[in-house]
Amino acid sequence: MRIRLLSIGSRMPGWIDEGYNEYSRRLGKDVKLELVEIPLGKRTKSSDISRLQEKEATQMLGSIGQGDLVVSLEVPGKPWSTEKLADNMGDWLRSGCNVSLLVGGPEGLHPRCVAHADLRWSLSPLTLPHSIVRVVVAEQVYRAWSILQNHPYHK
Hints:
The protein is an alpha/beta fold. It has helices at 14-26, 49-62, 82-95, 111-116, 130-148; strands at 2-8, 32-38, 69-79, 99-103, 119-122. The chain has a single domain, classed as SPOUT methyltransferase, trefoil knot domain (Alpha/beta knot, 3-Layer(aba) Sandwich), CATH 3.40.1280.10. Helix 3 links the parallel strand 3 and strand 4 (99-103).
């Protein structure tokens, strides 16, 4: 199974890349976590934010794999425990489907991306920087996978 993390923004701090890479590389051969960075349009005082978001949404939607289950990550989504994520991953593995996780930029996900989602997942009621979301998602995917493998990482 491939889980594609589609995230608005690039050029993250080194510690973000290191954290994401650490957890994504720990996954077994049955689950591959793949990061797809959608370039963040340059924001200035005179920028047309809605036009920038529209362009980012088009790129994000174009990066979703054909037949992928689409999960939007957003504050008003449904909170999942780690065990619920593990249950979902187990279902996804058994069904043979791939998954695209959508992470918005500074203004959140564009409404077209939200409308395209099959599921809406909230990591927290807090608003998190999209860079940190990458690390949290990678760690939680690894933790859920470790539960499915009966690996002692999740205690």
